[in-house]
Amino acid sequence: MDNKIDRKLQDMSNIWNEILDAFFLEANLRPRQILVLGCSTSEVIGQRIGQGSSSEVAQVLLPPLLSRVRQQGTFLAVQGCEHINRALVVEEDCAEHYGLEIVTVRPALHAGGAMTVKAWESFSSPVMVERVQGHAGIDIGDTFIGMHLRPVVIPIRIHVKELGEAHLTLARTRPRLIGGPRAVYE
After folding, report:
1. For every residue of 32-83, which 3-state class applies, written as one string?
2. Backbone angle region of 157, left / alpha / beta, with phi > 0 → left and psi within -120 to 50 → alpha
3. What is the pLDDT of residues 54-99, one digit of tens each?
4. Which end of the chain is more exposed for a tag (fewer CB within 10 A), N or C?
5. Cα separation of 52 and 163, whole Å?
């Protein structure tokens, strides 16, 4: 049984790296921009959102993402579940840079989810914030991260549509186009 689980986690890791390659190529994030991650580890393993948080899945998914974010000099914001009002774990530097209000809550396995717990443990100086205006997003399991993205969201379409059993949505944002018929857009 353990070999079967290990094989599934290794397969997931390989697919996740493919997803990250495609995502970062299309997202075009610049240093100090914010990437929002919403992930239901329950959905990834085929359970209903919030019903089967998996620390093992979080352990497979977060480290390679965090490594890429750090290499690019961007910030990662990991959204918690509704039991903590979808608050996000960010590095204290991110909160300071964007003037985000820090809130008092600490994620737990069944109040925040496995991914926020793993982020809390992995970040250098983690804090919780109520909201961000992210520049791109990864939503695994329909966690609805849209409330934490800038207003004009553009889907990123890649060849992978699911991670494990969870629906996958990728997005980037762009500045609003304003003006009328004479406006010029690059």
Report:
1. CCEEEEEECHHHHCCCCCCCCCCHHHHHHHHHHHHHHHHHHCCEEEEECCHH
2. beta
3. 889 999 999 999 999 999 999 999 999 888 889 999 999 999 999 9
4. C
5. 16
> Could you tell me the CA-to-CA distances from 164 to 30, 58, 105, 106, 130 in Å, in that order?
29, 13, 29, 27, 29
DSSP labels for 84-109?
GTT-EEEEHHHHHHHTPPEE----BT
The DSSP result for 159-186, as a single string, is S--EETTEEEEEEEE-PPP-S-TT----
Are the C-beta atoms of 138 and 35 separated by less than 8 Å?
yes
Indicate the residue type of 137: G
Q: How far apart are CA 134 and CA 71, in angstroms?
A: 18
Task: Tell whether domain 2-173 is in CATH 3.40.50.10360.
Answer: yes
Show the CA angle centred on residue 8, arms to residues 7 and 12, nearest 5°.
115
Tell me the pLDDT band of 110, cut-offs 50, 70 and 90.
Answer: confident
**Alpha-carbon span 35 to 16, nearest angstrom:** 16
pLDDT tens for each residue of 146-164: 999 999 999 999 999 999 9
